[in-house]
Specification:
The protein is mainly beta. The chain contains one helix and 20 strands. The longest helix has 5 residues.
Length: 269
């Protein structure tokens, strides 16, 4: 599989499985992120893959805020905006062992993530700053805290070969995106070119690991450039993701080629 994803015309990308170079004419794009499973080249989809949501392809607004709570979960029904809904995925958001249903709704101004709990009720959250024209998908659920409850992994394309990964959590019948300590949505770039890249891993213990690399200018005299890169750990506490001091290192071409762009407890891009 290819690590190089956004190389310019005439440049070569690295085939991770063979170590050989593969010609590519893809247009340039921004850098992305590594992970630990299999390497992945991310490409934006030209169309939005809407499928049948839990009820119908077009969802109409519901006003559940004033409705009585009758579900076993103690949560009201989600207030779903009018719009087209994506194909639902399953994730155990409340840790009760029963799969809950999660899907996206594309509305006039952007995107909502909607959760319907197996025990009844649910919640919804607006993806702040994500435009309606963006390609967004729910990758699945991942227990990034290791506590039995899964967070929703949401992926947004931000370039031809670059994606952002964010996490949506259910707590106290409220659905929200995890944030950085400056209160901005915690979204990590993932992707790579022949000269730089970024990657993200989820160990499943309440931490995240970001890796990054870039080619050292003038180091490719023998056709195999050297890279400088680094590792930045993040800690998740009280629904906030905080960066910690990391390490830097020099990397060989083989080391860079072995980096996987994203791995979150088995979920891959």
């Amino acid at each position: 599989m290819l690590l190089g994803a956004c190389n310019g015309a005439g440049e070569t990308a690295v085939d991770r499985s063979t170590g050989s170079s593969v010609a590519s004419s893809a247009a340039p794009s921004s850098s992305v992120s590594p992970s630990t499973v299999s390497p992945s080249t991310v490409q934006a989809s030209p169309t939005l893959p809407f499928a049948t949501p839990p009820t119908s392809a077009v969802v109409t607004s519901t006003s559940a805020a004033s409705a009585p709570i009758t579900s076993a979960s103690g949560c009201r029904d989600p207030r779903v905006p009018s719009g087209e809904a994506s194909e639902p995925v399953s994730a155990d958001l409340d840790g009760d062992g029963a799969p809950d249903t999660v899907y996206l709704v594309q509305h006039d101004e952007g995107w909502f993530v909607v959760a319907e709990l197996a025990a009844g009720g649910g919640a919804q959250v607006d993806l702040v700053g994500v435009e309606r024209r963006s390609f967004v998908r729910v990758l699945g659920g991942a227990d990034i805290m290791g506590n039995g409850s899964e967070d929703v992994v949401v992926v947004t394309s931000v370039g031809a070969y670059t994606e952002q990964v964010g996490f949506v959590r259910l707590a106290d019948c409220d659905l929200f995106e995890l944030a950085f300590d400056d209160s901005s949505p915690a979204r990590f770039l993932t992707g790579a070119s022949v000269s730089n890249g970024e990657a993200l891993y989820c160990p499943g213990d309440g931490t995240l690991e970001r890796y990054f690399f870039s080619a050292i200018p003038g180091s490719d005299n023998d056709g195999e450039p050297e890279f400088e890169g680094g590792f930045e750990p993040f800690v998740i506490e009280d629904n906030v993701i905080t960066g910690m001091p990391g390490d830097g290192a020099s990397l060989s071409l083989d080391a860079v080629a072995s980096i996987q762009l994203f791995d979150c407890l088995g979920l891959e891009l």
